[in-house]
Design goal:
It contains 12 helices and 12 strands. With 384 residues, it is an alpha/beta fold. A hairpin with a 4-residue loop joins strand 1 and strand 2.
């Protein structure tokens, strides 16, 4: 347990983190990869290059510092991160490595301002944070193994590949050993693990685009980085490694209307949700925004949903065809959503923030997912 003096010290350093948190986390990643190059096989190196990972970590550290004596209140906020860690096979021993390098980074950046009392308090505080993560992730691992009999990364064979647009392909993957697949929650993702030409293992998350069928997984992959380019270059019959489905952005079991708002590749989890909602007899409306209507992905799947009774509302910034609204979602679109509906939004972070700003329904009716490290981690208002 943290002492009162340690809690006081940690909370008093929150303004310091607000000023130096980004620098601390950038130094942390430099130290981590220099001293433990094996960790490069865990962390997304593209997010290292564009600095999103360090920004996301700075936000998380700031939130944890403000709530160091109320960490339990962060559980709802942490759930997406916990699922991501489980999907990446983060193990308890890794927290010791991270803690050592994080404390070292604080010392490197703050220099003489990082007094022994501050370092001792942060070391103890990090220990409490790590214990919380480890215990919550252990629950996810246990649930995973009990529900799916799926441990670690398993080999899957590419059964089919379908070109959906100029930069998106759909992959259907089946277990290499022919094992049956346990049901997953609609809206979840799998982590694909590939070895790059330089020998580095890289991991990326891709949403499952169909409901569970017991035999295969189908994912949609946009070509926008080294791993997705490598995936697009594979052929039917080749193998990839997958971890079990994960994620907390899932369709609720309800009879209320379903509304989905998708931006670009953010459509992928909403495809599975729309399929499940229609199968359950729920009134279903899907807003789909793309950049170019002449290059719209998953057109056949969307047309099939319309045949089954779904309302599909299309937007395109360029080349809007008949039946498509030019431009983007409007304020009126968001404010006029059925207040009784469960609403799910997935797309660029700016789009999600736009929907959250103008959504007029109850807060618990709005669900959202950010692809990649979130730069908008939120927690309840701190209580001093």
């Amino acid at each position: 347990m943290l002492t009162p003096s340690a809690i006081t010290i940690i909370k008093s350093t929150v303004p310091v983190l607000a000023e130096h948190g980004h620098s601390i986390t950038r130094v942390f990643y430099q130290r981590l990869f220099e001293n433990h190059p094996e960790m490069k096989h865990i962390f997304n190196q593209s997010n290292q290059k564009n600095d999103r990972q360090s920004q996301a970590l700075a936000t998380a550290v700031y939130a944890a510092a403000a709530y160091i004596d109320q960490l339990e209140t962060l559980k709802p906020t942490l759930l997406p991160v916990l699922h991501k860690h489980r999907s990446l096979q983060i193990k308890p021993y890794m927290y010791d490595i991270v803690g050592t390098e994080l404390i070292g980074a604080i010392q490197d950046v703050l220099k003489d301002a990082a007094t022994p009392d501050i370092i001792d308090a942060w070391t103890a505080g990090y220990g409490e944070i790590a214990k919380l993560f480890i215990s919550l992730e252990a629950e996810l691992y246990q649930q995973d193994e009990q529900a799916t009999d799926f441990e670690g990364y398993q080999p899957f064979v590419i059964e089919t590949m379908t070109t959906e647009s100029s930069d998106i392909k759909a992959f259907t993957l089946r277990p290499a050993d022919g094992r049956p697949l346990a049901p997953y929650q609609t809206g979840q993702y799998v982590t694909v693990r590939l070895q790059a030409p330089d020998g580095l293992w890289q991991n990326r998350q891709y949403s499952l685009t169909t409901v569970a069928n017991g035999t295969s997984y189908t994912i949609g992959v946009k070509q926008d980085g080294s791993v997705s380019r490598q995936l697009h270059g594979l052929s039917v019959g080749e193998k990839v490694l997958l971890s079990a489905p994960a994620g907390s952005f899932t369709l609720t079991d309800a009879s209320t209307p379903f509304v989905g708002l998708a931006g670009g590749i953010g459509l992928t989890p909403l495809l599975a949700m729309t399929e499940a909602a229609l199968a359950a007899g729920r009134e279903s409306t899907l807003y789909v925004a793309v950049q170019d209507d002449l290059d719209r992905p998953f057109a056949e799947q969307l047309a099939r949903f319309e045949e089954q009774g779904a309302t599909i509302i299309r937007y395109a910034e360029r080349n809007a065809l008949p039946g498509t609204t030019p431009g983007r979602l409007s304020v009126a679109d968001v404010t006029n959503i059925d207040r009784a509906a469960d609403t799910y939004v997935c797309g660029p972070e700016a789009m999600i923030q736009f929907v959250r700003r103008y959504f007029s329904g109850q807060a618990d009716k709005l669900h959202f997912e950010v692809f990649g490290p979130s730069l908008a981690l939120e927690a309840p208002t701190a209580v001093s």
